[in-house]
């Protein structure tokens, strides 16, 4: 089924991301806030909000964790599409996946060293029979 949820940041964090605490380094902003590119979201809207790494975080890493996903009996496959913008050559964006029965985070996708300065989209597919976080 298409129980797809759009995840935007217009009011706060979206349901998919942990409300508990936004990890240090992540800020919710829009293109109007004078903080350098991007100056709009992936739809070209300059007042729409997105998450951005603060400039103090240039040399370290910051994590975003989703809420717990529950596979249903019928569907164990989940597709997540996300939009991203990389404005730094040395930056690496990684997507990890952690089953609740495991301590380790498995890296399932990453991009680095691409100074794109444009919004790109990526879709990851996850197949799991147990609870997990991304």
From TrEMBL:
MAM domain: residues covered: 5-134
GO cellular component, one term: membrane
Gene3D superfamilies hit by this protein: 2.60.120.200
A Pfam family per the record: MAM
Superkingdom of the source species: Eukaryota
SUPFAM superfamilies: Concanavalin A-like lectins/glucanases
Protein name from the UniProt record: MALR1 protein
Organism of derivation: Ciccaba nigrolineata
């Amino acid at each position: 089924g298409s129980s797809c949820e759009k995840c935007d940041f217009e009011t706060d964090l979206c349901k998919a991301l942990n409300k508990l605490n936004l990890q240090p380094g992540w800020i919710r902003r829009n293109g109007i806030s004078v903080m350098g590119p991007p100056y709009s979201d992936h739809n070209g809207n300059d007042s729409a909000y997105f998450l951005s790494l603060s400039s103090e975080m240039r040399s370290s890493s910051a994590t975003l964790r989703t809420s717990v996903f529950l596979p249903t009996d019928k569907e164990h496959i989940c597709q997540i599409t996300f939009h991203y913008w990389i404005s730094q050559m040395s930056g690496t964006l990684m997507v990890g996946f952690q089953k609740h029965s495991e301590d380790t985070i498995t890296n399932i996708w990453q991009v680095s060293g691409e100074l794109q300065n444009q919004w790109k989209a990526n879709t990851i597919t996850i197949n799991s029979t147990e609870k997990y976080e991304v």
